[in-house]
Design goal:
Rossmann fold; alpha/beta; about 280 residues
Length: about 280
Amino acid sequence: MLFSCPICQRPLLAQQASARCCNNHCFDFAKEGYLNLLPVQKKNSIDPGDNKAMMQARRDFLNAGHYQPLACQVSQLIQDYCVQDQATAQPWQGLDLGCGEGYYSQFFAEQSSGKIDWHGLDISKAAIRSAAKRAKTIQFCIASAFDLPFPAHSFDIITRIYAPSSASELARVIKPSGHLITVSPGPRHLFQLKQVIYQTPQLHSEQASHIEGFKRLHSQQLAQQITLSNAQDINNLLAMTPFAYKLTETQKQALTQQPLCLDLDFKIEVFALDNSQVATPA
């Protein structure tokens, strides 16, 4: 197991239906197979992360294939930067950070054909429970992206799709030769929804992302237009985004009364550790 104890940071070892460290901190596997590595004292709320309704909306929307081009493009970058350069017979280690209900985790695992052992992490219990049900070959855990329950230098590849995280934690758990692939909103992503909410809607920034301790190797934009004709697809999209809290019920109803044409615009970037920033001993 790659997991480390979230209390004392010692390695966790699987023992039947639980994982235990040398200091006897014990975490039981849920019946779905995931581990809850978010101690009560580290929670900021009773039920952190996306709630069940948001998770179900995102699951149904993604399962309908609307964001599949994004999954395909990120998977191709994983192949380009990791799998094709693999020199040993041992599988690489991958982490889908902020994995949600596991749509992308499962897609990446299927596309990497066993060449990468994937892990998925999210702070939402509802999301991880759903993810563990859909992708049983992936080891999922409930944990904070700002306090990762993994030893240093664990992962060859980390994907971070619309997920906040700690730059120092990313730098700690990625291998020196590893790669980080991030996805964030492109300038016009879902701009039509902004036009409904704001009098003067603003584009997302076109500037390159900066992650402390990393250097950017590659950047690309993935843009397309989609038309949602099904009212349930529209409702699912609204429910899974922050716009759910900004739109009135009247606005939501109006948006579902006719086909909705939307811009999808993703900024995809690949990073590696910036070794020039690593301090050398005096």
